[in-house]
Amino acid sequence: MVLRFSNRALIALLLGLTGCLGEPEPVDDGTYDPEVGNLFEGSIQLSDQRVLELEASDLPSTPAPCQPPQRVVITNITDGDTFAAVRESDSQPIDVRMIGVDTPETEKRNDETGEITPAECYGNEAWAFTELLRGRYVWLTYDAECQDHFGRDLAYVWVGSGPGDMWNRQLAARGFAEPLTIEPNSSNAPVIAEDSAAAQAAGLGLWSACE
């Protein structure tokens, strides 16, 4: 007998195998405005239903994206700007590096030598913020170049379609990341730089903790 699974059923199975059992409860207190998206202060409003109801055409686009948007489920967080996910379209696992931001590194262990590199200042806090997305659906949109030399997808991460729903911007605006522009993926560099400058001026996150 051949068992056939829908993509979402297969994703649910994969999440179970990676320890993400069950669908996380939505974190949405009813104040979310889809035109604005999440605010850059206070609690984050998350909802899988919101993400699943969005179509690719609902999302802001860059001038010349290298590929169409992809909906994924996040399965593991490496650090604040990097994670593993499963694509909904074909159930394939991918690694993703967020465009335009650079969060401090978390603790790393060298598999060959066993040497442990301690976490950088505010690395654990940035990881914990993006950990809110583990087990959740998000949309990925792309810029001019799709992958880096490590084979990771380079993407903007969306939990809705409003300006404040881009996770890259949330990291910058809340002081979890510094801006990092690597051409040719620079379509959102100006707004991310503005978010980061505002966080620095207010002494948020790493801008005060890591002086």
TrEMBL record:
Membrane-crossing segments per the record: none
Gene3D superfamilies: 2.40.50.90
Pfam families in the record: SNase
Domain TNase-like: 68-209
InterPro entries: SNase_OB-fold_sf, Staphylococal_nuclease_OB-fold
Signal peptide per UniProt: none
Protein's name in the database: SNase domain protein
Protein source organism: Sandaracinus amylolyticus
Phylogenetic classification of the source organism: Bacteria, Pseudomonadati, Myxococcota, Polyangia, Polyangiales
